[in-house]
Structure formats: C-alpha cells, structure tokens
Design a protein that fits this description.
heterodimer, A: alpha/beta, 6-stranded mixed sheet, two-stranded antiparallel ribbon, 4 helices, globular, B: alpha/beta, 5-stranded parallel sheet, 14% strand, flavoprotein (chain A), ISF_SsuE-like (chain A), FMN (chain A)
C-alpha cells in the first residue's frame, strides 16, 4: 500500500496517511547549525523531536504538505522543518549536474505535493515562493514535485 | 541616519556571520548597534528595530534561504509608514561555491522589502563561506578587504556598492575551469578530505554513511 505522510499547518479534512506531522501544535526546534548531524552523530540531529518524522519521511512514497503563506514565504515553523531535514543528506557535494548538490544519505525520497494557503502582494512574490519550494525539494532529491495553491485541489 | 545590524546566525557571535559583521563595521566610521537574533525575543526585537532608519541583516544560507530563526523575526516585522524612507538590506553568506544558490531568497528579500514598505538596499552574497572562521589570515584577506570597502561605501552613501557586490558574488555559477576542476576533485574524493578529518577527530568516521532512520 502507498505510504503517505501529511505535514500540515491547518486543520484538514481526513486523509488516509501513515503519519501526520501537525505543525499547528508542534513547534519545531530551530536548527542550530552545529553540524553534529554530519560530523559527530551522522544522520542524527542533537534534538530528538523529529525522530519519528524522519523515520516516516524516508519510508513514505508521497508527502502532502498543507502550508500557510506568511509574509510571502513559508512560516518560521515550516522553515525550521526544512532546515532540520539536513540530517537526511550527506555533507558531501556533487557537481556533476553543473551545480552543487548535497548527496543523498538514503536510497529514496518521497514525491511531494505542496499545497499552500495565503496571498502575495505581487505576481512575482508568488513565482518566487513557488520556485523556492521546487528548488528545496529538488535539493531534497524528490522526483515528482507539485506546488499549488490549496484552492486548486 | 541610524542603522541597526542584526546577526541572523543561530550560532550568534560564534559564527561566520559575526566575522562578516566585524569586517563590515571596520570600514564604517559611524557607530552601528548590533543585535543577535539568537539572544532576543523576536517580537520585542521587531518592535525595537522600528526606530532605526535602516536594518541590515547578516545571515547564513540554510536550505536555500534564511534560517528558521530569522523567519520567526520576519514574521513579526511590521511595514513602515508610507513615505518613511526606511530601508532594509541583507548580507548573505553560504557554503556552496556558487552564489547563484542564493538567488531564490535574494528575490524573496526584494519582495519582502516591498511588503515592508522599505527601500531595498540589495542583498550582498558571498559563496564558499562556510569555512571562513577556520581559514588562515592570508586566505581571508581579499574577502575582508571587500567587506571593509562595503562598510566604508555604505557609511558614505547609504547604499551597497555594486562593484564590491559583484566581486563578492563571484563565481555566480560554476562554469569553465572552476566546474571542470571541481568535477575532477570530486571524482578523486578530494572534496571529502576536510569532512573526513572532522569525522575522524570525532571518532565518527565509520558511521559517516549511517542511515539511522531507514
């Protein structure tokens, strides 16, 4: 059966999923930039609050993200989650595609469906936001990435 | 004209952003207040900065943009009054060699300035900066001179000097010799030497490829 993980910043209708990370009630600790997850305890963050999430994320076929737009960007809580995903990758950088990319630690990563709620003051703001989300999950080695406003689903 | 410099590194005064701030200030004659986001309450800090004409954020790149801690502060920033002539600028340093990795957040900062009703001074970008704190003096000389010049020009003109910015952001993309050289060293594994040195020192070398959550 397809394994789906949901990450949400808003109340959502029921979805069949193997795990939900509820960012309304869980405040993700900030990445401290200590590099312990690369150099002291490879693959493990000094904080343990996301251990179950890491486990389910790398096992998932698909991750559905329901995000709120804050000041034209992802929220601080969502951004901290992105920052804290660096233990899932190696410190080494590969340049075979012509730009620097971190090498994956795990054999596969889930496809991403990123749906956002909120508005932008300019069309450019919307483009910048979507381009950023694509780039982030491209760096996170996801193959299929969808980024859409929530009202389009 | 009063400027506040905000250190947006989760490592606070113990990281590369702090080195960038010290070198920028070295070029300035006018006094500048400096605050550390990792030591402040984000809401109170957002209120405190209202009285300054200009905010300069100095920060590291985390996952193609600002650290979560900096976004928390941005969440609390309120737009300036119309015609206030307040400004905002950013100095961003990243570990990747090519500074184009910063283009997503650079475009965002430009949009944010609009949303905050502040004049956008620009984003100064420096790649290959993760190791600045451990480099010997002769290897940081060029970078520090450019940061001194940036501070000096800012003090005189209240702008980021485009020529200095241009120099700091080289290489923007990996091309030609730089790319060939990096592809060659990657093939040899030379790019791993520094990481392996740290891993060995921490007695973690044998665990370097661990997959604890598989």
């Amino acid at each position: 059966m397809k394994q789906t993980v949901v990450i949400r910043e808003m109340e959502a209708c029921h979805m069949d999923c193997s795990y939900t990370l509820d960012l309304i009630h869980h405040e993700v600790k900030y990445c401290q930039g200590c590099w312990n997850c690369w150099l002291k305890t490879p693959g493990r963050c000094v904080y343990k609050d996301l251990d179950t999430f890491y486990n389910r994320y790398v096992a998932a076929d698909e991750v559905v993200i329901l995000a709120k737009v804050v000041k034209g960007f992802v929220s601080a809580n969502m951004k901290s989650l992105f920052d804290r995903m660096i233990p899932l990758f190696l410190p080494y950088v590969d340049v075979s595609t012509g730009e620097s990319r971190h090498i994956p630690r795990y054999p596969k990563y889930p496809d991403i469906k990123f749906y956002y709620e909120g508005s932008f003051i300019t069309d450019e703001g919307k483009q910048v936001f979507e381009a950023y989300i694509y780039r982030t999950f491209d760096q996170f080695a996801s193959k299929q990435i969808t980024v859409k406003p929530i009202e389009s689903i | 004209m009063e400027t506040i410099i905000l250190n947006g590194s989760p490592r606070g005064n113990n990281g590369n952003s702090e080195i960038f701030i010290r070198q920028f200030l070295k070029g300035m004659r006018t006094h500048c207040d400096v605050k550390y986001m990792n030591k402040e309450n984000p809401e109170e800090l957002a209120s405190h900065v209202k009285k300054y004409d200009t905010i300069i954020m100095v920060l590291p790149l985390y996952i193609h943009s600002m650290p979560g801690m900096v976004m928390r502060f941005i969440e609390h920033l309120e737009p300036s009054a119309v015609h206030s002539k307040q400004a905002i600028g950013f100095i961003l340093q990243c570990g990747f060699t090519e500074s184009s990795q910063c283009k997503y957040v650079e475009r965002y900062f430009s949009c944010l300035a609009k949303e905050l009703n502040r004049t956008y001074l620009g984003t100064v970008i420096k790649g290959e900066a993760a190791g600045v704190y451990m480099l010997p003096k002769f290897m940081t000389k060029k970078l520090f001179t450019l940061l001194n010049q940036l501070g000096e020009m800012y003090d005189q003109t209240h702008t980021f000097d485009r020529r200095v910015m241009e120099k700091l952001q080289q290489p923007y993309v990996l091309t030609g010799f730089t790319l060939k050289f990096m592809q060659f060293t990657t093939k040899l594994g030379a790019n791993k030497i520094m990481w392996h040195r740290f891993l060995k020192k921490n007695d973690a070398f044998h665990k370097k490829l661990d997959q604890p959550f598989a």
